[in-house]
Amino acid sequence: MTDNQKIHRVINFIGKPVLIGLFVAATLMVVFPEFRGQSNNDASDEPMDLRDSNLASGWAGPVSYSSAVSRAAPSVVNIYTRTVTKAAKHPLLNDPLFGRLYNRQQQRIESSLGSGVIMQADGFIMTNHHVIDGADQILVLLYDGRTAAAVVVGTDAETDLAVLKINASQLQPISIGEPAQARIGDVVLAIGNPFGVGQTVTQGIVSATQRNGIGLNTFENFIQTDADINPGNSGGALVDAYGNLLAINTASLNQSGSAGISFAIPADSAEKVLKDIIQYGRVIRGWLGMDAFPLTPQTSKQLNIAVNHGLLVRAVSKGGPSHRVGIQANDIVISINGSPVTDRHTSVSQIADVMPGKTIELEILRQGKTFDVNAVAGIRPPR
Prior knowledge:
Layout: H1 3-31, H2 66-72, E1 76-86, H3 96-101, E2 107-118, E3 124-127, H4 129-132, E4 137-141, E5 147-156, E6 161-166, E7 187-192, E8 200-211, E9 222-225, E10 237-239, E11 245-252, E12 262-266, H5 267-280, E13 286-287, E14 290-294, H6 297-303, E15 311-316, H7 321-324, E16 332-336, E17 339-340, H8 344-352, E18 359-366, E19 369-376, E20 378-379
Antiparallel strand pairs: 1-2, 1-4, 2-3, 3-6, 4-5, 5-6, 7-8, 7-10, 8-9, 9-12, 10-11, 11-12, 13-20, 14-15, 15-16, 16-17, 16-18, 18-19
């Protein structure tokens, strides 16, 4: 074989696969254009705009919450109260001479402020009980600048909520959100009238849900937030990123170093109070007529009791639901409607949620023996 023949065979051996590979690659580039590389000359030096990019669909939240504020703010009002109190009588007024000179009852006028939320277009407003407690006059300043005198429809000190009524037209009730769906980390906005400076919005997140045992109210199921709730914000709205009401702002911890710890009453709890007060004049809750405190491992050991959870009955109201089914002092309530007793707050709320007249099943421990009783819930007396 000559040298030319050898070279020709090598070219045929190598060249054909190369040509076939180039042909396949060209075909793939045509069928699948995404395989093509992009030259630096085609790349844009302009910054990416999320509004024009598919990345916007995965963006966690809006850059601005102005739409949420615009939606909720007209439903939040400023509340101003006046309370007339009798001033302490000065000892000199007992003197005949000074008594004739100052022969009149001295009075002192105290003013306070807060916020409220329009719940219905016919003028029903929710606020905190402590905002209007004892007030002789209540004035509501609407978002559009109008003012209206308010009357108290009813209050519920055990949740620190109150319902007011004003006579005004073109009121915008707030949109109710879903507080049960609130998640830790969700963005929230607090709208109110802090320090009387006018409507103000502060931003934060949901820090915790179903907070209880704080000691502010009898019934507690707070949404905790780090949004600032300053004096004057009480009774205002805590809304989600879309302007829906999540809760009624109530209080902040004022202890040293407690910045960013505020509490609000969930909107569904507020709605229940609103409906009851409008219908009955007060909140209707279930009641068993017993005074009990939670059993702890320590008290169980001290009292030589076999269980370390439950409610230890201290006293029973004579003639009340518990008394009628034979519950006695020193009995231990182990479960309520089949749910084990874990803490006093949960148990009190569980009983309160039962409509009066309905049956509550209680598991009782007495002297080492357990038995069940069915008590008919009464109406919880006003506090």
